[in-house]
């Protein structure tokens, strides 16, 4: 049972209670002889507990020395660490309480799969009423995939689910993870913000519009087609309207399919229909294909190339085929003969979807057992969670 559910909280100045779900990633990594790796131990919690901006010793009964004992609680296979309380964060001296729940499997985010998303989403759903918001700590490599899938699983929610991480581990000097975590706690705990966001380098991006743009810059994420939702500078400014908190409950959670269903193919000079068919045929469980095509959605269409015929054959086998743009600022619209011909074969336009959002939307659609192929096609063309322009 969480501290909140067991009624352990007493402080009147604690504005909100958050659950921080740790999955590993750089933010939680330690150096090893084989490079940075997230370990399954309490070092990450201890580092946070001793940081004066993230944990106020007067706020909890927990001693703050790095060496003092920690009494984690096993929650199934996962580990929940004792509650931490921030120093006053808001203009009205509000404090935020949070608990870190570390997943059993701490991983570099390149190991992330739909199975882990099912676990994360299940934990959020299970703890929905006990907490005022959720922060998912992830590696940055697949962070935008995680935030994108959460946006489809948790549409129109009344609480925040923020995803954050770091480029340098908390265990190392100059870590950006401190600021990313503090900003996340501030947005989820003090601001009136609901929905799925990526918090990175003092900005909040819409979860299904964000993409990782650099493995080096602290400003590692952008949302190329829409402005950031929040800029956390000296002054906090909003890039548009943000969804306020409400008592809206999350939709009934669906279980994501874990067999390989969504295939991603990149168009490149020299691609042929044979190369595309070989990839599709190699995945018997394939239910959707993302084509990352040139520019506004172009690819070679000559008969001898065979790409169009390969894609048409896939659509006829009830495989959703969608086209997105390889450009850094994506936008698919049928301007050229190539793009128009492609769409005339039943391939669906991905408009300004990022690859991450396209992947998440397709995974969500093929996981919806209640939908026919036709209904999936129709829903793909409609924005479900603000993931693309109408
Ligand atoms: N490889 C790391 C990860 O995605 C990168 C990072 O978190 N900065 O887990």
Automatic annotation (TrEMBL):
E.C. numbers: 3.5.1.1
GO biological process: asparagine metabolic process
Stretches assigned to the L-asparaginase N-terminal domain: 17-236
Top-tier EC class: hydrolase
Pfam families: Asparaginase (PF00710), Asparaginase_C (PF17763)
Molecular function GO terms recorded: asparaginase activity
Active-site residues per Swiss-Prot or TrEMBL entry: 26
Transmembrane segments: none
Ranges for domain Asparaginase/glutaminase C-terminal: 265-380
Superkingdom of source: Eukaryota
Protein name: asparaginase
Lineage of origin: Eukaryota, Fungi, Dikarya, Basidiomycota, Agaricomycotina
